[in-house]
Specification:
- The chain is built from twelve helices and 32 strands.
- It is α/β, with parallel strands linked by helices and about 500 residues long.
- The longest helix is centred in the first third of the chain and has 18 residues.
- The chain starts with a helix and ends with a strand.
Length: about 500
């Protein structure tokens, strides 16, 4: 040990840490936090001042001279890299998108082009403000799509035009994210000339062809994208696809194994235009659908190696799984339901379709009526690993009726809820009344309620946030749990059912 201590050398009392380690630590921090580490010592300052990941954020510059200070800082930073002959790995740039907010296109262009000249292969460019309708203020300089070294590109709130000499030359690009981006038919050239793309994200993009006057929402309809036929090998390496607010028809995912042979992770978020889907894929492992409106998802899946399926929406989807892996998980969430949104018979049918998976079910419901409640008592009831339950502003009688229908429809192992105000505490009281008979200092399962004749044991735990552990909650503390606890207290009921 003494030899090890003696081997540590210091200069002026400073322990020498290799620059690469310091920069690795700084990479986990925000740009502002990383800058703050520069005051620790000379070596930390040197590591920060030449860090290969550059983060410029105009929000950190306030006051009447904000844009001048931001311009001076960013130009001096890039000049320092050039003077020291140091390369840049990535540039993250956040700038306002209106001139009256202190935005200068020439400065943004200057910073982006200089970063590319210094070797940046990862660009994340965000210009959060735009003028309606769909007029994106900042136009990405042609050097971006003309960079042969580019491997990752994320664009938010801007317009994309062709590269140098009208060509797209980023053949090494592996990750592409377009978020609220205005596109022309340049998108076809990007996809066709970037065969190595592994991660592709489209969020609320719009486009206009050169021969069209109308601006349209991004539409994907194979075998064509923007009227051009998809080459089979175009998406050969794609393993992640995220679509949000994108229009596509049902044929887009037909023969998925041929079009996307390596696709592992698929997310479809608030998209439209499609009807009944049939997704067959030998590679898909994670599938996620989010439906914020009352659109009812109808889909059939042939996914032999799936690991997780997620759905979040208002209407109960109509799903079928023809082939799945032996072990997989399903996570189903219904958020802020209204009258008529939740049909318990349809919910039980969905759970039966998912019974080969480990099911997690979340019901976060407001203003619910009992119009669509129905006791469905045929057996066997599917097992739900975890039922998250929160019913705000819902009458006690409706909450109790829903619980009765749920226990006739499934057998939850865990019921998790939380106390946060009067309405949420009501849910805990109803659960106690239905599930538990209090016997001094222990819980006794209530087997006299509908759907609970095979309920054998009930225990209650609360989550200790400071220690990040669950601990038993005694009966004398349960009903008074809303008093004396922090603003939000998570509670779960552990249920054991008979065979």
């Amino acid at each position: 040990m003494e030899n090890r201590r003696r081997s540590i050398k210091g200069i002026n009392g400073e322990i020498q840490v290799p620059e690469v380690i310091i920069q690795h630590i700084q990479s986990f921090l925000t740009g502002k936090e990383a800058a703050q580490t520069s005051i620790l010592s000379k070596s930390w300052y040197a590591a920060w001042s030449t860090h290969p990941d550059v983060d410029f954020d105009q929000r950190y510059f306030a006051g009447s001279q904000a844009i001048d200070g931001f311009a001076e800082f960013t130009r001096a930073t890039l000049q320092r890299y050039e003077d020291l002959n140091r390369k840049i790995k990535s540039l993250k740039l956040w700038m306002y998108a209106k001139s009256e907010e202190g935005y200068y296109p020439s400065l943004a262009n200057e910073l982006i082009v200089k970063a590319i000249e210094l070797g940046a292969s990862d660009l994340h460019l965000e210009f959060p403000r735009r003028e309606p309708p769909f007029i994106y203020t900042f136009v990405i300089p042609p050097e971006v799509l003309g960079s042969a070294a580019l491997t990752s590109l994320s664009l938010i709130g801007c317009t994309v035009e062709r590269g140098v000499n009208g060509k797209v030359n980023c053949s090494r690009l592996k990750s592409l994210c377009l978020d609220n981006v205005f596109l022309g038919d340049i998108i076809w050239d990007v996809i066709a000339n970037c065969p190595l793309i592994e991660k592709l994200t489209f969020i609320a993009c719009v486009y206009k062809f050169e021969d069209q006057s109308k601006i349209r929402v991004l539409a994907l309809s194979p075998p064509f994208i923007f009227g051009r036929q998809i080459v089979g090998s175009t998406f050969h390496n794609l393993n992640y696809l995220f679509l949000k607010l994108v229009c596509f028809d049902s044929s887009f995912f037909s023969d998925c194994s041929s079009k996307f042979p390596c696709l592992k992770d698929l997310t479809v978020h608030e998209c439209y235009g499609y009807g009944n889907l049939h997704i067959f894929s030998k590679s898909l492992e994670c599938i996620s659908f989010v439906e914020k409106k009352r659109h009812k998802l109808r889909a059939r899946f042939d996914v032999p190696i799936i690991r997780k399926f997620s759905f979040s929406g208002r209407a109960v989807p109509a799903l079928s799984f023809q082939t799945t892996s032996r072990e997989w998980e399903s996570d189903i969430s219904f958020l802020h339901g209204e009258t008529g949104d939740l049909s318990v018979p349809k919910l039980k049918k969905l759970l039966k379709r998912l019974h080969h998976s480990k099911i997690s079910l979340s019901l976060n419901i407001m203003l619910l009526s009992d119009n669509n409640f129905e006791y469905v008592g045929d057996s066997p009831r599917p097992v739900v690993e975890n039922l998250f339950l929160m019913m705000m502003d819902t009458p006690s009688s409706v909450c109790s009726a829903l619980l009765g229908c749920l226990f006739w429809s499934c057998r939850p192992k865990l019921i998790t809820t939380y106390i946060e105000g009067k309405g949420s505490h009501n849910t805990v009281k109803i659960l106690c009344k239905r599930l538990i008979q209090f016997d001094q200092d222990c819980y006794v399962a209530n087997r006299h309620m509908y759907g609970q004749c095979d309920l054998e044991e009930v225990n209650v735990e609360c989550f200790e946030e400071d220690l990040a552990v669950w601990r038993p909650l005694p009966p004398n503390s349960l009903l008074g749990a809303s008093e004396g606890y922090k603003s939000k207290q998570i509670i779960r009921f552990l249920l054991s059912w008979g065979q």
